[in-house]
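The pair is listed for reference:
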Amino acid sequence: MKVAKKYLVVGGVAGGASVAAKLRRLSEEDHIVMFEKGPHVSFSNCCLPYYLSGTIEKAEDLVLMTPEKFDKQYNIDARVNNEVIAIDREKKEVEVKDLLSGKTYRESYDKLILSPGAQPVKPDLPGIEKVNTFTIRNVVDIDKLQQSIQRIKPKHITVVGGGFIGIETVENLIEAGYNVTLVQSPDQVLKQFDFDLSQIMHKELIDHGVELILGDRVEAFEKDEVILKSGKRFSSEVIVFGIGVTPDSILAKEAGLKLGKRDTIWVDHNYKTSDPDIYAVGDAIQVYNPISREYEMIALAGPALKQARAVAMHIHGIPVVYPGYIGASVVKCFNYNGAAVGLNERAVKALGIEYDYAFVVPKDKVGLMPDSEELHMKLLFEKPTGRIIGAQAIGRGNVDKRIDVISTIMRAKGTIDHLTDLELCYAPPFGSARDVVNMAGFVASNILHGTFKQVHVDKIRSLLEEGAFVIDVREWDEWDVAHIKGATLIPLSELRKRLDEIPKNRPVYLHCRSGQRSYNAVLALQNLGYTNVYNISGGFIELCFYEYYTDKTTGREPIVTAYDFE
């Protein structure tokens, strides 16, 4: 008969609760104890901001499992309000403090699994005691924030930080009817995306009434007042910090366990720490990124769940494969959705990888369908191998589907040429016969193999200032709505009849709405002997998105006669 083992799990939610449940599924004899210092052992932390808008009506709806359910359904001893405060590795015991009674006690273990998660960063700024400040980590936090808002009835709420939690908090506060300012120290929100794509989100935020302050930071507070580094001051009765998280690795550090990058908990490919009887999972550990070939911290629920399963299997002698993690993620910002995977341009440049990228803006389904929407996709690939190293997509439609497909190809070490022949589901309500993913592959393959040359929208303003020759190949009615100042209109339908207007002795830059018609024009000109022609990737719509926010917030002269987003 199998000898029963005793497993202790520190922390609940995604990582801890999942490893405890998987351990039980693999054995009925073992004694499993899970400690959670908060009052809730299992809750949907990803849904927390949606309580602010009433999308989730009650705070208790965020709680997924109670200690009673864990006991009855899994025979797991889940102890809330119990904090593990020390690990005695030599005796294989933990010291636990009952936060309600104040008493401490010890529990022995055969194996110990750490899932402490990450702590939200709350900076110690001058005057912080003079304002109502909040962070969002658990149900208690979000309920405290909501109750405070309802009590204070603020005229203005400030969210500091434009990452996932910041964006979702802003959206839900706006939906609830509050005036909101978002302050972000870098010059863009959502660092997973590159600067060009983030401009779409900037427009979406200000279009929904958000006061968006980029490239500035909170320096201090006065009574119900925010003071920025630039000197700007404004009133705000509620401040929500969403400026990032740090691994909650204090317990591991005090126990003498090896730490990794950014004070994460070091683990091997089986999620075993430097102590062979202690494992760790979730936001607090370092993970290997097979694209960058570096270790990093990834605070996402999906990896935590997979790590939890792997730990339970390894404890029971079942082989597991460590694939590494490439950071597939998705976020909603009002009417737009954004998804990303792998490396962005900043990361690629920092690593010194030779690369290029395709930027396409096709419809997410057949254009005749009334709910079809343009989808902006950026596909980064390594030169000269064509290895896919990152992808980003923003649009009103199913961006997650496209990034999920590319993420799968990346995990299989695929290249851009794998995307061109990828067979994907098609019917008009769902997509197109040549899906966005296929289109990105086509363009990337053409770029890699030198079929045509391109220039990106971030270069257009400077090119115009230098007197560049730009051709708009859209039709007359499109030109009348909006166009690039100084461009020449030669519709694709008239191109071959007006070759005498196109110079061969200087670079020529062509664009249409999305880059597809101008690509055809570029190839036609190349076949007619032109050697210095470039397609403007993303076309006029991408240029409008790229220029809009900066134009509106700085008052600079637009390079377009009007913006056309529809």
User: Anything to note?
Assistant: The chain has 15 helices and 32 strands. The mean pLDDT is 97.
